[in-house]
Amino acid sequence: MSTDTTLDARAAGEAASELERSSDEVARCADRLDGRAFGPDTAGRNYRSSAADLATGLGHLSGALRAWSQATTETSSSIRSAVAASVSTDTSTAGSLPRGVR
Asked: What is the extent of the structural domain holding 31?
């Protein structure tokens, strides 16, 4: 059983890129929710209370989507930073080893 740990920097970078695309899409969904001009003033007079509740719920949903998007962006950034640090450490360590030891 091998005790070596390896990092596929390219695959990790692709995963970070996919997270960024996902984050962007979730942010666009939140934007679409914010762009809805629906509330008590646009509902029929018998539905103002329900419309207010719905508008409040959509506002909460939009906020949750924005938080999710931000967390996903931060995760992607952390992955990229960790990969860069790992590659830098590996390169530095490999360069300082005696020839033939790698």
From this structure: 22-81
